[in-house]
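The authors assume throughout that readers already know how a fold can be written as discrete tokens. The format is easy to grasp once an entry is in front of the reader. For illustration, here is how one protein appears when written out as sequence plus structure tokens:
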Amino acid sequence: MAAPRSHPSKLPPQARRRSIADVQRQIDEAERSRAQWLRMVEVLDSAGRPCRRERSMLRLAEERLELLRRSQSILAVGEPEARQPDQR
């Protein structure tokens, strides 16, 4: 049996920045997906048509976005707050 770790593994700064950038790209994509499903729900609602599938997809998109934002906040721990986006 392996000994339990007292501290979670830490990413080196370069890997952490890449991971943060990857998560940000996924957040941008998830926001576009959420907006698309929201528009579909609004259009179907205004037309008086059922949109059960679209509401479910909207809920899934919102849940994914929430998880990605949590990941982003976890990765941001330990990052210098004053770092500019173009600094590496």
The two ends are 40 Å apart (CA to CA). The mean pLDDT is 84. Residues 13-46 form the longest helix (34 residues).
